[in-house]
Amino acid sequence: MRNLTLQCVRGCGVAAVFSGSPQALHVRPGTGTVLVVWDCGVGELDLSSEQLKNEVSLIAEGFLSEDGTGRIIGIQDLLDQESACIATSAGDVILYNFCTRQLECVGTVESGLIVMSWSPDQELVLLVTGQETLILMTKEFEPIAETSLNQEDFGEGKFVMLGWGRKATQFHGSEGKRAAQPKPTGVQPALPWDDHRPRVSWRGDGQYFAVSTVCSETRARKIRIWNRELALQSTSEPVSGLEVALSWRPSGNLIASTQSKPHRHDVVFFEKNGLLHGEFTLPFSKGQVKVNDLLWNLDSTVLALWLEDLQKDGSPDINTYIQIWTVGNYHWYLKQSLNFGSSENSKVSALTWDSEKPYRLHILCQGWHYLCYDWHWSTDRSTGEDPYDLAIVAVIDGDKVLVTAFQQSVVPPPMCSFHLQFLHPVNQVAFLQSPQKSNDLAVLDASNRISIYRYDHSVVKDEVVELGQAGRNGFKLVPVMPYLEKIYRINFEANDEKGINPLRIQHLTWVQDDTFLAISCNYPFSQSVIHHLTLTSSENGDKEGCMEIRSAMTVDGQVISLCYSPKTRVAALQLADGQLLKYLWAFPAATLDPWKNGNGHPVRFPHLCVQTVLAVVDGEVVILGLTERARFFINDMEIASNITSFAVYEEFLLLTTQAHICRCLSLMDTSLKELQALLSSPSIPNDETVRKVERGSRIVAIVPQDVKLILQMPRGNLETIHHRALVMAQIRKWLDRLMFKDAFEYMRKLRINLNFIHDHNPKVFLDNVEVFIKQIDSVNDINLFLTELKEDDVTKTMYPSAASNSQSPVVLDGKKVDHICDVMRTVMDKINPHKYCLSILTCHVKRSIPELEIALQRVHELRETAPLVGDAVSTEEALKYLLFLVDVNELYDHSLGTYDFDLVVMVAEKSQKDPKEYLPFLNKLKKMETNYQRYTIDKYLKRYKKALDHLSKCGPEHFSEFLNLVKDQNLYTDALKHCLVGTQEHKDVSILYGEYLNENRDYELAGLIFARCGDFEKAIKAFLTCNNWQQVLCMAAQLKYSENKISTLARHMAGQLVERRKHTEAALLLEQYAKDYEEAIILLLEGAAWEEALRVIYKYNRLDILETNLGPSILEAQRRHLVFLESQNTTFVRHKQRLTIVREFKQQTHQEHLDEKAPEVLGDFFSDTSSTLTASDMSGKYSHSNSRISSSSVPVLLQTVLWLLFSSRNPFSLHFKMQKFLCHQRLTETFSGNLPC
């Protein structure tokens, strides 16, 4: 749904130099010049200087006669030879060297030449001679093959007829078998104006070429397809009225020509096998025009037709036209129509597409005026962002404008909601840049008239506005259509030179209700003019008004784009050199200044952009631009290089990329650097700004409020998506405005998780729950919201967004669902508990721990006290709904847990349970004592704590059953609560509990439980197992142990403590309870508790032990530590030397000649290190059972440290690790200096 818009027009004229008429035009790629052929010569036209250079006259050189009988029939630029190949009708093939300006005849055909055509790769050249033969030659002009032009054979691709599907075997309806008989088909001869000259066209890859000739037998034109070896491949089927134009599509699938039919004039397409394959009709009556030529552009997307009026009744007025056609969804659109008029100077003499830029068209006029048109694709759409904007897209199709209002319906092209009919072909469409009237549109046709169409709230019928295929009978929705307000004529000053260019107005922009901005080019097109066009009413009441040119401003350079922002009332111009200008037109005196960035520096696009838009990024007005090569710029900063299309909607920037994704980024609080980083970095999971789309998708329109994004695929069909970023932004706006109804319906339609209503701003939602319930006003919708609740914060999991202003949950304990259910239940109870009964039940069921008993109780209350209000819910309906929420078996169990047998029966009746199964069970329960009955029910429901409570009230006769339940379900702590302290029941339960703790190795707690119930023997065993000697002595005192028994018990516990290296505690037991202070002193010395040993020695006045035991023990300990620290010091010194070697080696590796030897040296070096490390480990081992330092772990620690030390190839890391050894060095000095030897 794109239009082909004129970007700029260039041109020059050399009419004063030559008196002859131009005949051909050929573009020289990369030189900025074109080759021009006239009656008697060839020249090179320099477009920058507008001067003709390297011209040569073939008459003067003797290749053409002076009587004018000969002419040039072909020219080809040979860039690699810096020459041009020229062919004349006399049969000469000439090379013209641009450097030497010499002509060289490389060959002559005696019969003369009609056509010379080079292959696209310039490897082959085809000559058609006057004897109707084809000569194929190499680029060195060596013959490859020669054959006759008119051959009777079909070609190598002749169809093989097997008889399947023959016409004779088909059903022919009422015509019968006569329809199967072959009917004579006559082919009409060529048209009278046909020059009977052959036409040649190559396929884009140069593998095949097509030749259109007049058959000598039928005198009608026929197309033959040949390959590079000059072998005939196929011949076209007989086609009456086939004309001279011929062009093979570069992509290779179609050959275009024209056909004059009895009732219309068509462009027809042939396949490579010669069969017809589609056509479209030209907007002319039969016999009105002839097609001189048709040409495909470089990428096969645009077809240009050169047409000319047929002379009738001797009328001298013959108009020439250039039409630009494109195709989409198998429909051909006439996008541009250039009427060059009937003036002799303005008639078209030659045209060609550029060989480098696919949308550049070169035209040469009869009066030696050269024009160059640059086109680009654009989507003409309304840009409003309010609900009144219909998201209209206008598509030009000849004298019609196909209009689709996506707000009302999505209609795929070529269909439309309605179309506007005009008298002349349409060239431009502009929408009013006003938020309130963004649907109004203006149409500029080929006659330079502007038609204004406006929308009105009232239904206005206009005869020029016709419903499209999507608005006729069978469609319920009738689109709102505009009406034609008036047609305005633009009056230009009469000037023949300006009249050469039929497209005088470019970049038409409707900025105000009565004001347009437009661009035109001053001849010779080196400057542009900005026009202010104002609508004025005609005074004499004519239907056609006049558009006044209020003011004009000249710009040095060519304006190639104009964009306008209604918010800032600023227009931005882009010049051909990339310069950006700011145009302030609304001031009393219009001003034109360079566009500057936030720092005040002028900016320009590094590359020309075909689409420009003004937007506000991070508070700064910037220009967004997209080039033909998918490079996206904001001001002069390149943001991305893979963008295929973009659009701005409110504060969002939407882009489609070559990676087939659609990005939606906020421009409000995002800087240019952040935008660049976002587009260059991969997307994160659940990123709402990213949406995958189909390959080649482009943005067509954005529907406001509904935030539908319309995309068009390469083949032309449309796809509607709801981009999550746009959807969530709209929902956030509604929620911030407390428009819960709109947000809820939109979220339900698009399947957005309804938790977002709360999680977006929990405090606001909880404070306005009553508003939410009253706006929704539907029990089913409220139930849907409640059933979707979950504990997760969806603003952090499913819909994370940096722009989201969601608050942290107000429920600190994390029970979000419970809190919402409680608040909503309270509000619904307050508003109308009868109407919202089902929603209240949902609140009870949806809690983290479902309150099914309370819900069942509410249902039971409904049966007992049925309300008489109209909107009340019956018991049956409530129970049925509850069974929908909860499994019937689970609900039956919970009803049984209420101990209400009527409620149980009511639920059981709704289930599929057999009454023979549950009625006997219920009857049995009814006969039991109340507490035992409830115990039985709770045990059946596995609610053992409640069962234990009820069983404890059943009396001592059920105590054995009580103990069994405690042991089976491990309910010891609960059982102790139900037994009085001091009773036998309490003691029995405590003993069971202590034994259970012993089995689970919780000996300390078991000992306390045994001690509490008075079983001190079991308590001693438990405390002995966990080495709690204090509690053991306490229990021994309770049992009144004798001193000998306590001494024996103390020695036993001391042995256990020594095994755990608790020498001090073991010595305490031996000294105080075993009365063996000598053994206690020995244990203290073994444990290196020197001060405690001194205390005991002096306490018992055993000073002899100082010499016999204390001194030797201290000296032995010193010796062990000194040996260990000496080994550490030796290791440090050795590794310090190694560190020096590593640092020297690092310096050597910086030299280029040692790069290859470095790995070998490193391998030898670390091999030596490993050997040294092993020896060090063996010499550093030390073990002593009485040492407080675990010497057995030292070698392992040393091995680990040294391995890490030498596995590091970074000497700085090695240096850092060696600092640890310095601590041992200092410790050695300190320790050896302070201890006596």
From TrEMBL:
Domain ELP1 three-helical bundle: 1104-1193
Signal peptide per UniProt: none
Record domain ELP1 alpha-solenoid: where: 724-925
One function term, GO molecular function aspect: tRNA binding
Biological processes per GO annotation: tRNA wobble base 5-methoxycarbonylmethyl-2-thiouridinylation
Listed PANTHER family: ELONGATOR COMPLEX PROTEIN 1 (PTHR12747)
Protein name, entry field: Elongator complex protein 1
Origin species: Geotrypetes seraphini
